[in-house]
């Protein structure tokens, strides 16, 4: 689920940037007619792309993103760039369109910086690019003995994870601090806790 959404988000973001770049080039080259034609021809596609961009972005934010300063800056860039872009293109203002372009690419660049920073960090499961992979590793290390590969084992009276109705916060609390026969996990990072919750979510059907 997460990997699919991440992939969709990446494709959509790339299309979004491409679309923006084409329009910007037309604007700067003073091809007003071509720009108007292009804008009209791609209006529906652009709407779909924008909605998919926001929906996948928000989904990941709610379900995963560790809210860091970098992500906050990225969000601000994206949300400021959208009205700036709309006004910029409507008025045919090159400076505004350029500003929007800078903002959009800045937020894209920040995502890459974030990834590099993580990749340069210490090598443990939390540096894996894909949280599902990280979550699976954590699960295999610390959870599988009681909960089983599909979450249903129920060893030591463990609950069936494929039918849990607990929220992410409630799960985090139990994973961190334990509950009755389940031991707490104090030695894993917040990121690993989030990853394992995400992985446990894949048991649901
Ligand atoms: C020693 C066995 C054991 C291990 C290891 C273990 N659990 Fe549990 N788990 C339990 C038991 C027992 C419960 C039921 C606790 C209760 O509600 O009384 C439980 C409950 C849970 C619940 C709450 C489910 C619900 O619907 O109430 C979650 C979520 C959970 N475990 C996740 C994990 C994760 C993730 C790991 C690995 C980081 C893990 N567990 C490792 C035994 C274990």
Structure notes:
It contains nine helices and no strands. The protein has helices at 2-28, 32-41, 43-63, 69-91, 94-120, 131-142, 144-147, 168-177, 190-201. It has two domains: 2-120; 125-201, Cytochrome Bc1 Complex, Chain D, domain 2, CATH 1.10.760.10. Helices cover 71% and strands 0% of the residues. The protein has 205 residues and is mostly helical. The structure holds heme C (HEC). Heme C is lined by residues 142-143, 145-147, 156-159, 161, 164, 166, 171, 174-175, 179-183, 185, 196, 200.
How would you sum up this structure in a few lines?
By secondary structure, this protein is mainly α. The chain is 71% helix and 0% strand. It has helices at residues 2-28, 32-41, 43-63, 69-91, 94-120, 131-142, 144-147, 168-177, 190-201.
Give the number of domains: 2
Largest sheet: none
Cα shape: elongated
Which molecules are bound besides the chains? heme C
Tell me the number of strands: 0
Distance between the termini: 11 Å
Q: In percent, how much strand structure appears in the residues?
A: under 5%
Estimated structural class: mainly alpha
Number of helices: 9
Q: Give the uncertain stretches in residue-range form.
A: 120-128
The Cα radius of gyration reads: 22 Å
Name the average pLDDT. Answer: 84
User: In terms of quaternary structure, what is this?
Assistant: single chain
Summarize the SSE layout with pairings.
Blueprint: H1 2-28, H2 32-41, H3 43-63, H4 69-91, H5 94-120, H6 131-142, H7 144-147, H8 168-177, H9 190-201
The structure holds heme C.
Residues 142-143, 145-147, 156-159, 161, 164, 166, 171, 174-175, 179-183, 185, 196, 200 line the site of heme C.
């Amino acid at each position: 689920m997460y990997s699919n959404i991440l992939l969709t988000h990446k494709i959509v973001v790339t299309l979004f940037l491409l679309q923006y770049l084409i329009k910007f080039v037309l604007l700067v080259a003073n091809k007003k007619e071509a720009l108007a034609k292009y804008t009209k021809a791609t209006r529906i596609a652009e709407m779909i792309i924008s909605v998919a961009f926001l929906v996948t972005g928000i989904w990941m934010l709610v379900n995963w993103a560790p809210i860091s300063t970098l992500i906050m800056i990225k969000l601000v860039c994206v949300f400021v760039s959208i009205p700036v872009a709309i006004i910029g293109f409507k008025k045919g203002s090159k400076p505004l369109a350029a500003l929007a372009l800078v903002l959009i690419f800045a937020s894209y660049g920040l995502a890459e910086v974030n990834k590099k920073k993580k990749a340069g960090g210490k090598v443990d499961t939390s540096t894996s690019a894909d949280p599902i992979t990280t979550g699976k590793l954590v699960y295999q290390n610390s959870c599988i003995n009681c909960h089983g590969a599909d979450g249903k084992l129920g060893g030591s009276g463990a609950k069936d994870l494929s039918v849990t109705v607990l929220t992410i916060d409630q799960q985090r609390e139990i994973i961190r601090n334990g509950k009755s026969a389940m031991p707490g996990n104090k030695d894993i990072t917040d990121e690993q806790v989030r990853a394992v919750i995400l992985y446990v979510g894949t048991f649901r059907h």
